[in-house]
Specification:
Blueprint (H helix, E strand, L loop, with lengths): L11 H10 L4 E5 L4 E4 L1 H7 L3 H4 L12 H11 L9 E10 L5 E13 L2 E11 L1 H14 L10 H18 L3 E9 L1 H8 L1 H18 L5 E6 L2 E7 L3 H15 L1 E4 L7 E12 L6 H17 L4 E4 L1
Parallel strand pairs: 10-11
Antiparallel strand pairs: 1-2, 1-5, 3-4, 4-5, 6-8, 6-10, 7-8, 9-10
Amino acid sequence: MSNSNLAPELGGKSLHNLVSICPDPIIGVDCTGMINVFNLAAANLLGYSPEDVIAKLHITELYASREVGRAIKRMIYSDQCGAHGKIEGYEASVLTSNGLLISIRLSATILLEQGKEIGSVGFFHDQSGAKAMEARLRQLSITDDLSGLYNRRYFNTILADEMARSSRYNRPLSLIYIDMDHFKEVNDLMGHQEGDRAIKTLAAALHSTLRGTDLAFRYGGDEFVALLPEAQLEEASVLAERIRSSAAVRITSQEDSSMTVYVTLSIGVAEYDMKEETLEFLKRADKAMYEAKHAGGNRIGIR
């Protein structure tokens, strides 16, 4: 491969040394797309030895699909991701030798020799660590620290999305609103550590009781909600009863064993009627919960 378009001032040996020590994977191809440059960093990232791929593997075989490889080739000839003949910072995925997908950021350029295209070279910056951190930070931003459930901010986003989906496809959607009975007594008499234990007990009950498609949230303090896509009122009520019966917990003071508080649940259940606004749907489930609480608690209200 000519090095004239990559680093005209460097000789062939110097260029080879530069490519070999570069910490980012560098992969070059000839004008047919066959790999002819594959440095040590590329080998470490993808699990191939240079002997496995040079003059043996087409560049499209390293992407998630051949069409992805073809699309990248088309981009090089446009100015969609940089100047004509270049790609700068394009996010894609490549396949390792054992079939795993790795996120990369690709910068590539066409190589010319006396005005004639002889191939291209690309820098494949590994993004998997950054993507994992990004996913972790996003998970933390939507998760309640104590319960491990989703938080209120995420609930407000998801509720609107699920209501829109329910209306669009005419599919049922139910909401369970939960308030813990006697929770204040636990905090006041026994301390917040015991209150935290009651919250974790309820969170565990929600995890074990709800279906895989359901979503549970800590709405605030001792209030929780669960969104149940594809669930009509009757099915949601059955799930609510399972939660009520499995999440009740007797809290006994560690300092005074005669001091006990029985924490139960007041639950409201409502099914979306396709016409109401987001706040109306939430308020209806909330009102059903308060009706259950005012009736003595440890029961389910339905609206």
